[in-house]
Write a structure and sequence with these properties.
By secondary structure, this protein is an alpha/beta fold. It contains two helices and four strands. The N and C termini lie close together (10 Å).
Length: 71
C-alpha cells in the first residue's frame, strides 16, 4: 500500500488465531519478498490478539492494524 509521505506498507493477512504457530519459512519468505520494496514497513495481520515483532515484521491483530497502518 502506497501512502503519500509515509513508507510503503507490505501486508500479509493470515486467518491464524495464534501466529506463533505459523511456519518460520512462511515469515522468512514474506520478509524477503517485502524487503525488496524500498522504504517499506512489513505487517502480518491476523486474529492473534497479541502485538508482536518478529524480525522486521510487525505482527498485529486485524483491528489495531487498520488504525496503525492508516486504512
Amino acid at each position: 500500500i502506497e501512502r503519500p509521505g509515509l513508507p510503503t506498507v507490505a501486508i500479509e493477512i493470515k486467518s491464524a488465531k495464534n501466529i506463533s504457530k505459523l511456519d518460520q519459512a512462511t515469515l522468512t519468505t514474506f520478509s524477503k519478498l517485502a524487503g525488496d520494496i524500498e522504504n517499506s514497513e512489513i505487517y502480518l495481520i491476523s486474529q492473534d490478539p497479541l502485538e508482536q515483532k518478529r524480525g522486521n515484521i510487525h505482527c498485529l491483530p486485524w483491528r489495531s492494524a487498520i488504525s496503525k497502518i492508516g486504512l
